[in-house]
Known about the structure:
It contains four helices and six strands; from the N terminus they run ββααααββββ. The chain has helices at 24-34, 39-42, 46-50, 60-74, and strands at residues 13-16, 20-21, 80-92, 102-115, 118-129, 137-147. It has a single domain, classed as Roll (Thiol Ester Dehydrase, Chain A), CATH 3.10.129.10.
Amino acid sequence: xxxxxxxxxxxxxxxxxxxxxxxxxxxxxxxxxxxxxxxxxxxxxxxxxxxxxxxxxxxxxxxxxxxxxxxxxxxxxxxxxxxxxxxxxxxxxxxxxxxxxxxxxxxxxxxxxxxxxxxxxxxxxxxxxxxxxxxxxxxxxxxxxxxx
Length: 148
């Protein structure tokens, strides 16, 4: 897929990633990095007793932040010298990611906006949770691609 061929893919799924495990160590590191140490994320003793999830869960923003990693594993656009995270239009977290679960992402091109140096690509990113009928994250994500 090239930057110039993206219009051919408008409205189509362009990538599906492999499964990625979300382990407690990553959740703990994210809690430290963001200063979000709510017990539901990091207290392995309390969460099984008091949480409706029966275990600790990943932060929604951790799941969202993994979009960059997941997309880099499955999505390559030739003819672009760099890409930047331009922002999000809408984000929802329909299901919790329990510690030890695996996630993967599907990407559909929703919109394309050329600009002189490249193109803004709006992706519908759906992060699936293994063995769950509900996704754990659905986001309209804008990536700005610059021409090589």
